[in-house]
Amino acid sequence: MFLEAALLGASAAASPGPFQALLLQRAARVGPWRALHLAAVPLVSDPPVIAACLLMLAGMPAGLVRLLQLLGGGLLCWMGASALRELGRPGAAPPPAGPGTPAVPERGFGQAVLVNLLNPNVWIFWSLVGGPLLAAALRRSPGAAGLFLLGFYLPLVGVGAALVALFGAVGRLGPRAARTLAGASALAFLGLGLAQLWRGAAG
Fold it and tell me: How many beta carbons lie within 10 A of that of residue 140, not counting itself?
């Protein structure tokens, strides 16, 4: 469970998206040291999302939870396959952000928390992927749930901080490094998605 959570957290941190764009934008604007604290934004923005998703899952029948597991596994596989397909295009380089990423004001940690709290990707992830896995761990024991969260957030925050330091130091990721990072993230998403599909089908 810890290893699965760690792979999921590292893959999420390395996958281009709104939160990664937030980190890199801030690092490029003010430098890595002044932006490093933003890597901890998910620790503040995610708990309300997790609590809401767990409450939603708690009232669901087992069959519907299993359906959510299957949907979550399909989502991870789709994300991984899409990323690999994008990498396969000639001359394609993975962008640091998705379209429509909101700008982060020069000041605050609070504004960054709000941006991530309103990010639909966070709600989709915890509804379809993280929530069912965390709920399963919680049914085993509170310790197992704590281990899952620790395994997820250690690499999520750590990789985010590393991206801030790297991007702030060199100004941008080189194309080879960006492709390697995106490829590893895509393969991890595929593997985790297949594992969740198997778990949901096995019931």
Answer: 12
pLDDT tens for each residue of 123-132 = 888 988 899 8
CA 53 to chain centre: 16
Residue 148 banded pLDDT, cuts 50, 70, 90: very high
pLDDT of residue 106: 45
Cα–Cα distance between 35 and 58 in angstroms, integer?
Answer: 37
One-letter amino acid for residue 33 of the chain: W
Angle subtended by helix axes 41-58 and 131-140, to nearest 10:
70
Say which amino acid occupies 57.
L
Instruction: Please tell me the total number of residues recorded for the chain in this structure.
Output: 203
Give the start-to-end residue ranges of the domains of the chain: 2-202
Please tell me whether residue 89 adopts helix, strand or coil conformation.
coil
Radius of gyration, CA atoms only, the chain: 17
- The vertex-147 CA angle with 161 and 52, nearest 5°, equals 80
From the number of C-beta atoms within 10 Å of its C-beta (0-12, 13-18, 19+), residue 63 rates as exposed
Record the tokens describing residue 76, joined without a space.
């991870």
Give the mean pLDDT of the chain.
77
Q: Distance between CA 145 and CA 158 in Å, rounded?
A: 20
> pTM of this prediction?
0.67
